[in-house]
Design a protein that fits this description.
This protein has 69 residues and is an all-alpha fold. The chain has one domain. The protein is elongated and about 40 Å long.
């Protein structure tokens, strides 16, 4: 990759562990903001080389762990 571009950003809603998203898999939760960015920018999924997710709530946390059942 020779260049990187930040074209848009979105976030998911926040809910406590075992709360509103307890039945939602982490990849499903992450897909929602990706779909929103694609819709807003008109970028085709084939035109994306990489997506970077961050976790701003739990220092050093691993997002899939917060979706344990």
């Amino acid at each position: 990759m020779s260049a990187a571009y930040l074209v848009a950003a979105r976030r998911t809603a926040v809910a406590p562990r075992g709360g509103a998203f307890k039945t939602v898999e982490v990849d499903e939760l992450g897909a929602a903001p990706i779909r929103a960015v694609l819709a807003d920018t008109g970028i085709a999924p084939e035109g994306i080389d990489a997506v970077i997710f961050g976790n701003a709530l739990y220092g050093g946390g691993i997002p899939p762990r917060f979706n344990e059942r």
